[in-house]
Amino acid sequence: xxxxxxxxxxxxxxxxxxxxxxxxxxxxxxxxxxxxxxxxxxxxxxxxxxxxxxxxxxxxxxxxxxxxxxxxxxxxxxxxxxxxxxxxxxxxxxxxxxxxxxxxxxxxxxxxxx
Length: 114
Hints:
This protein has no helices and 7 strands. The chain is mainly beta. The chain has one domain (3-102). The strands form 2 sheets. A 4-stranded mixed sheet has the order 2-6-5-4, with no helix packed on it. A 3-stranded parallel sheet has the order 1-3-7, with no helix packed on it. The termini are far apart. The model has no long low-confidence stretch (mean pLDDT 87).
């Protein structure tokens, strides 16, 4: 699985122009350098042309042709162990109401108190 490290990318890089297109089922973007999921800004759309942008520390990169619903905790990872969760955490995109990421999703978790 090809991996792209945030620290090796340049501000303004576009996957699909400066790099091969990002394939959510086969590629990984890894945020290194102590960056947490809560530190990044994400923007994007599915219409008319899908794209997703990531921004942090004055750097912005774009996945041309990839909508945010295609991002998962497998294809976007953080070296510090934090997690990005969007929708149902699959690369499936909604085609009808209630399908894939368009459905209701619930997060459940716990932390042991000592």
